[in-house]
Amino acid sequence: MRFRPGRPGAEDPAPRDGQGPARADVLRAVLVIGVTVSLVVLVMRAFSVTCPPERPCLTLAELEEGVPLPEAIELLDRDGELLAEVAGPLRRALRPQDVPPLLAEAYVAVEDRRFWDHGGVDVRGVFRAAMRNVRAGGVEEGASTIPMQLVRTLWSESLSEAGPWRRKVIEAMTAPRLIDVLGHERVLTLYLNSIYLGNGIYGVERAARHYFGKGVDSLDLAEIATLVGMTPGPERFEPRRHPERARARRDVVLHTLEALGLATPEEVETALEKPIDLGPAPELHRRRTYLSAAVTRELRKIAPELAGRPGLRVHTTIDPVVQSEAELALREQLEAIERGAYGTFEADSAVVLQGAAVALDPHSGAVRAWVGGRDFGGSQFDRVDQARRQVGSLVKPFLVASALEHGIGILAPVSADTVPIQSAGGPWLPADHVEETVLPLREALVRSSNRAAAHLAMDLGLEAVSTVGRTVGIDSPIPELPSSSIGAFDGTLLEMTGAYAVFGNGGYVVEPHLIERIEQRGGRELWIRAVEDDAPPVPPVLDPKTSFVVLDALRDVVDRGTGYAVRSSGYYGPAAGKTGTTNETRDAWFVGLTPDIVAGVWVGFDQPREIVRNAGGGALAAPAWARWMRGLEREGLRSRASWLPPVGLQRVRYDPVTGQALAQGCPVRSGVAPEEAWVRSIDVTLMECRRGFLGWLERAWHTISPPDVQPLERTRVRRDGG
Fold first, then answer.
1. For 671, phi and psi rounded to 5 degrees?
2. Considering Cα of 678, then 679, then 681, then 686, what sign does the dihedral take?
3. CA 206, CA 105: separation in Å to the nearest integer?
4. Residue 709, Ramachandran bin (φ over 0: left; ψ between -120 and 50: alpha; else beta)
5. Which of helix, strand or coil describes residue 676?
6. Which pLDDT tens digit goes with each residue over 1-30?
C-alpha cells in the first residue's frame, strides 16, 4: 500500500483505467505540434524575403496597397532643365494601362512563355529546363519565371546573403504569393518597371528614353526587340558600347516574335533591315554634389512629408550658367593660390585648401549658385552653410549703416585714434594699415580701417553691431564686445552673403532659398513657395537712403579700396563689395554685388591656419569673384540694370581728407584729388569757395598747411535713429 508524502497512513487512490497513458499522449501531441510549428516558422523564415534595417525595401503588403516603387527625385534648374537625380534609382514607373501590349507580350514570349497560365512557378518549364541541362551536361536553360525574376529584383538585398539553392527556393516560394496577391497584370507591370537595363537604369520606360529618346508608347518593333534582348545581360548587350552584339540579340528576339505570331514576316523583315537607331546619349546626373545635397536638406526642412516620396520633381532657383562659372572660378583661384601666384603657399598633403561660393538674387533671395567646397567626394562638409568662421571686415558696412541710421553723415570725420579702448577685458586696440587718426566715415569703410570701426562701435554702443546684424538677417550670435566691430565672431558664407542683399535692394531682408516648388511627375503641384498677393508690404529694415549710401561706398571699395583686385583682375562691370580677412590670414572673404546678383566667396582651410602670409580677402578671394563675374559676361549674362538712387540723396564732390563737401568748381583744400559720393541731402553743407586772388591765396595756404580735422564727438551721436 502506498502513502502520500506528509500524511502517514493515508492511502493513495487507485488510478482510473487509462488515465495515465492518456495524459502522456496529450503531452506528446502538444510537444510534437510545438516542434512542428517551430520548424515550420524556422523554415519559412529561412526561405522568406526580408528587408535589412539599413536598406529598407517594399513589403508584399505595401505592394498590395499600391505603394510605388522607389524612384529618383529630379532636381530641376530655374529653366526646368535637369540638374541632378537623387535619393532613388533611375526609374520612371508605368501604370498597367500605359504598357503597350506588344511590349508586354514580347517580354512574356522571351522571358516566360507560359506566364499567363502558371501561378508563379512553371513546373513544366522546370522539367523542360532540367532535361535540356542534363542532355547538355551544364546549364543550358533557366527555369526562372517572370514572378521569380521579380522576387529576385525587388528583394535583392535580402537574397544577396543566400546561397544559390536557397535563393531558388525562396523565389519559388514567394512567386506564387505575388500572383495570388497582385494578379498577373500587376506582376507583369511591376516586372517591366523593375528590370535593370544598364547604366544604372531600371524599368522599360526610363530605358526607352535613355536609349531611344522617347517613351515606350512610341517604340517600334525593332526598338522593342532591342530592349527585350538586353534584359538577360544589360551590360553585355548595351547598344551604345556593343552595337553589333545588341543587334544580333535583337534579331533573335524578332525571329522569336515571328515564330509565336506576335509579328508578321513582313514586319520582322522590315525591322531586321533597320540599324539600331539610338537617340543622343543623355547625361546621367547621378553624381552627388554640394548643390544636390543642399537642395535635399532644404526639401527635408520645408516638406518633410514629401522628402521620401518617389518620382518628385523639385524646381530649384539655380541658374546653370551662374553655377558652372562659380565652380570654374573657384577651382581656378584655388589652383592659382597653390601655385604661389599670391605669395608663398606652404603645401601640405595632409590638408587641402578649400573654398566656397554662393550667389543670390538680391531682391528675392533665390539662390543662383551653390559651391560648398572643392570635391564632394573628398569631403561632404558644406562650407556655404555649415562652416562657421570669423567674418572679419565683412561686418564694417553694417556698422556704417548703423551709424547712418543714428544720424551720422557718411562724410562725417570719425576717430581712428591709436589710444587703446578701455573694455571689460582691459585696454584693446586692433592693428590697422591706415595711418590717419581721423578720417571721413566713408573713407574709413573704403580703406577698411580697423581702428575707426572700433572707435565708431564704442561711440554707438557695444550693442550696435549685434543689433544691426540681427536686423539684416545674420542669425549667428554676435557678442557685445569691442572686437565684434572688426568681425571677431563666427558666421556662415550664406548668411553674410544674404545680409549684403540689403545694400542692393533698398534695405530689405531676403530669405535665401533653393526650392521654388515641388510637383509630381505628372505636373500636379504638391508644394509652392508662398507668395501672398494680399499680404501687406514688408517694410525695409534699413532706410533706402542708408542702403544706397553704403552701397555707393562699397562701389569705391572695388574701384579704389581694399577690393581693387576685382578691377585689376579684369572685371569692369558695375560692382560693389567688401573684403574680409581674419588674423594671420586664416580666412579670406569677398562679398560683392552687381545690380542682378549678390555673391560671396570664402577661401581657407577647414582647420584654420595661415593661407598665404600678408595676403587677405582682397588678394585671395576678390580675384575669384572677378573671374566669376567675367565668366558670366562671357556667357552673355552682363548686367543690363543699374542702381538708381532714392529720393533724398545728392551727388557731391568731397575732400577725402576732411570729408568736406565742395560746391561746384571748388578745389580740394587738403591738396589731394577730390572724390564723389552719394550722400543724404540733410547731412551736407556745401563749402563755397572764394573767387579771384583771395581764393587763390586761400587754396595755396591750405596746400601748405592742411586744416586740422576733428573727429566726431560722442555727444553728436543721435540714438533716436533720426
1. 85, 5
2. negative
3. 19
4. beta
5. strand
6. 333 344 444 444 454 555 556 766 666 666
What ranges do the domains of the chain cover? 60-70+87-273, 649-716
- Domain at 60-70+87-273, CATH class: mainly alpha
pLDDT surpasses 50 at 712: no
Tell me the β-bridge partners of 579.
590
C-alpha 632, offset from chain centre = 21
CA dist., res. 317 & res. 78, Å (int)? 5
Q: For 623-654, how does the pLDDT look when each residue is reduced to its tens digit (9 = 90+)?
A: 999 999 999 999 988 888 889 999 999 999 99
Contacts 24+ apart (CB under 8 A), 688-694: 688/663, 689/662, 689/663, 689/665
Question: Cell 501590349 belongs to which residue?
Answer: 101
Asked whether 498 and 593 are in contact (CB, 8 A), the reply is no
Q: Are 574 and 595 in contact (CB under 8 A)?
A: yes
d(CA 422, CA 680): 33
CA 242 to chain centre: 36
Name the residue among 327, 491, 311 with its Cα closest to residue 393. Answer: 491
Q: Is 82 in contact with 285 (CB distance < 8 Å)? A: yes
Overall size of the chain counted in residues: 722
**Which runs of consecutive H residues, i.e. helices, occur in 416-543?**
441-446, 450-460, 463-471, 493-504
Residue (of 580, 594, 602) closest to 372 by Cα position? 602
CA 432-438-439 angle, to 5 degrees, is 90
Q: What is the pLDDT of residues 261-317, one digit of tens each?
A: 999 999 999 999 999 999 888 877 777 899 999 999 999 999 999 987 888 999 999
- Virtual torsion, Cα 356, 359, 365, 368, nearest 10 deg: -110
Tell me whether residue 135 is exposed, middle or buried, using C-beta atoms within 10 angstroms of its C-beta: 0 to 12, 13 to 18, 19 or more: exposed
Burial-class residue 597 by CB neighbours within 10 Å (0-12, 13-18, 19+): buried
Cell 532659398 identifies what position?
513
User: Residue with C-alpha cell 515641388?
Assistant: 518
Measured distance CA(40)–CA(36) in Å, rounded: 6
Pairing of strands 587-593, 576-581: antiparallel
Using an 8 Å Cβ cutoff, are 591 and 501 in contact?
no
Distance, CA of 628 to CA of 463 (rounded, Å) = 36
Residues sharing a CB contact under 8 Å with residue 616, sequence separation 6 or more, in sequence order: 562, 579, 580, 581, 585, 588
Residue type, 610: E
Contacts of residue 369, Cβ cutoff 8 Å, sequence gap at least 6: 318, 319, 322, 323, 325, 326, 357, 358, 359, 599
Q: What is the pTM of this model?
A: 0.82
Give the C-alpha separation, 242 to 230, whole Å: 11
Backbone phi and psi for residue 256, each to the nearest 5 degrees, phi listed first: -65, -45
> What's the rounded Cα separation, in Å, for the pair 116 and 597?
61
Beta-bridge mates of residue 243: none
Pair type for strands 675-680 and 649-654: antiparallel
Dihedral Cα 630, 588, 601, 414, nearest 10 deg: -90
Phi, psi of 589, rounded to the nearest 5 degrees: -125, 155
Distance CA 210, CA 284 (A): 9
**Cell numbers of 405, please?**
541710421
Contact 401, 542 (CB under 8 A): yes
Residue 243, H or E segment = helix 243-259
